[in-house]
Amino acid sequence: MSKNGLLIDYEYCTGCHSCEVSCKNEHNIPRGQWGIKLTQVGPFQIDADKWEWNYVPVPTQLCDLCEKRTANGDVPSCVLHCLGGCMQYGPVEELAKKAADKGTKVAIFVP
Questions:
Q1: Quick one: which of 54, 82, 80, 70 has its CA closest to 5?
Q2: What's the CA gap between 101 and 96, in Å, rounded?
């Protein structure tokens, strides 16, 4: 049986915090704690005309990939509510292939 994980393509993350909010609501996580935490990297200047500024959703130790939702065949709440469409859920082997095709701004999370 394949283990499932979360692929985050943070090149397309808009920093909207929908993943954080949906996770907190799904799991009733108290204030000051997160199941997934949006971090900001940058802004920093690359050259005279180019800047880099990324948002990276990072699952925490509280993330169980919405065990109850996925047991019913649904995707995790963060994936469902991601406005940028930068999160995917599925078998780790498939996610690894997608990550290899996408390039460097991806991360795979497996609890």
A1: 70
A2: 9
DSSP per position, 59-90: E-TT----HHHHHTTPPPHHHHH-TT--EEEE
Range of the structural domain that residue 29 is part of: 4-109
In the chain, how many domains are there? 1
Task: Please check whether residue 94 is in contact with residue 103, taking contact to mean a CB–CB distance below 8 angstroms.
Answer: no
Q: What is the residue-level pLDDT of the chain in tens, covering all 111 positions?
A: 569 999 999 888 999 999 999 999 999 999 999 999 999 988 989 999 999 888 999 999 999 999 999 999 999 999 999 999 999 999 999 999 988 887 667 888 887
Domain with residue 27: its CATH number is 3.30.70.20
Give me the torsion for CA of 66, 23, 38, 100, rounded to 10°. Answer: 30
Residue 34: phi and psi, rounded to 5, are -140, 150
